[in-house]
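User: Can you recover a sequence for this backbone? Please restate the input before giving your answer.

Assistant: Of course. Working from this structure:
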């Protein structure tokens, strides 16, 4: 199972159709940009951006994965080219694979994202630059 460390309480159960797994909060790994990697399967991964502080947008970057997200708390701006989307609690968004974009955190921001394929595999989630 991806994300579980040695001695973890995360678990995997084999079924006749595949694996059912759980990732404990204590076993969640952190990424270089502040994201926390949650559960991941072969074709989709989930990550959490928890209480990210306000910040200027980083340079736009295109990723090889599709992203869908949901804002739990806070506010951010999603910029893609000449388009800006204002994101607040309860909003959700989609960024297709290959679209250059950036986020500006306006107010302490917590969001959950799913990426396909999983961002945390094969170095897909390295910081731009």
């Amino acid at each position: 199972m991806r994300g579980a460390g040695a001695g973890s309480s995360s678990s995997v159960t084999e079924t006749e159709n595949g694996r059912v797994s759980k990732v404990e909060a204590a076993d969640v790994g952190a990424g270089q940009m502040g994201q926390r990697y949650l559960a991941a399967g072969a074709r989709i991964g989930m990550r959490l951006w928890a209480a990210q502080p306000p910040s200027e947008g980083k340079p736009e970057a295109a990723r090889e994965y599709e992203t869908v997200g949901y804002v739990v708390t806070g506010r951010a701006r999603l910029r893609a080219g000449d388009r800006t989307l204002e994101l607040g609690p309860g909003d959700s968004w989609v960024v297709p694979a290959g679209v250059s974009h950036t986020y500006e955190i306006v107010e302490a921001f917590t969001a959950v994202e799913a990426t396909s394929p999983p961002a945390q595999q094969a170095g897909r989630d390295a910081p731009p630059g």
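That completes the design. The domain at 29-116 is CATH 2.60.120.10 (Jelly Rolls).
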